[in-house]
Amino acid sequence: MSEQKTTATERFFRIAIALKGLDGALQVAGALILAFVPASTVSGFSHAVITRDLLGDPSGTLARHLESATENFLHGDTKTFAVAYLLAHGLIKLGLVWALARKIVRAYPVAAVILAAFVVYEIVRAVHTHSIALPFFAALDVVIIVLVLREYRQLKRAA
Length: 159
Prior knowledge:
With 159 residues, the protein is mostly helical. It contains six helices and no strands. Helix 1 packs antiparallel against helix 4. The longest helix has 35 residues, at 2-36. The chain is elongated. The chain starts with a helix and ends with a helix. The mean pLDDT is 82.
């Protein structure tokens, strides 16, 4: 029974790590795209989404959040932040995923600390910017932290 539980936990951990790797790769790609996409393209896309009712009522909550995010992106330091954040977060995730996939035991506590720092930063930034996406990303990172620490304990017991 214990062997099946370990296998299920290991499988869940591997899936979570693969998803985190995919997330990291998408973040790096997104950072590179954002770095080279003109602000007018972002504005046009946002306008198209809102005016075609793709988020529901054009004066609804989601549409207002998209409008606000687009405005901040166009006229603030949000673009620079987004590119730097996505690039750093993505590259760090890819490095951690690489180390965790190879079961480099010393990487597990490092991964937990780095992800915890990202969670704190995501929450602080969400409070500051009223982002609806950052708390979601923070919650996902918390789940990954729990899985990393659980796998770390299992590897330490096996050693």
